[in-house]
Amino acid sequence: MVVKEAGGVGMIMVNSDNFGEDLVADAHLIPTAAIGYRGGEAIKSYILSNDNPTATITSRVTKLHIQPSPVLAAFSSRGPNPITPKILKPDFIAPGMDILAGWTGFTVPTGLTEDTRRVKFNIVSGTLMSCPHVSGLAALLKAAHPTWTPTTIKSALMTQFEP
């Protein structure tokens, strides 16, 4: 919002050192390119080393059939918790970053009051997106095995599935 109010027509959003190279898709009011911390440092160095720095952002073609390595999101718990030692670890991890999901027309994609757009889908990240994946699997297991207890279903989810 600040960039738009200042007359900006686009922006490059750079991760902090804490988030490193993990990129999360989120909505913005103006065209935005998100880059990791190292890329941001390189851009900053270039800007500071030139009297008249310029850049061009070109669109890239989507590459199909490329399987990226599994990466745990920066906001995900890895356990054990150094602050609260009683929290050992998560029992599972599930897809929860940059998930294309249905979106109500009553809220805007950015959550900002200045945003007047209405969309049917949005890219969302967080445990609110990983929970439906695991809940759906648990429901399928319960339907296939009606006598299984919640503990049995949890055990099956933890021991019988591979990415």
From TrEMBL:
InterPro entries xrefs: Peptidase_S8/S53_dom, Peptidase_S8/S53_dom_sf, SBT
GO molecular function, one term: serine-type endopeptidase activity
Domain of life: Eukaryota
Keywords: Signal
Transmembrane segments: none
Keyword Signal: yes
Family: Belongs to the peptidase S8 family.
UniProt name for this protein: Peptidase S8/S53 domain-containing protein
Species whose genome carries this gene: Lactuca saligna (Willowleaf lettuce)
Lineage, top ranks: Eukaryota, Viridiplantae, Streptophyta, Embryophyta, Tracheophyta
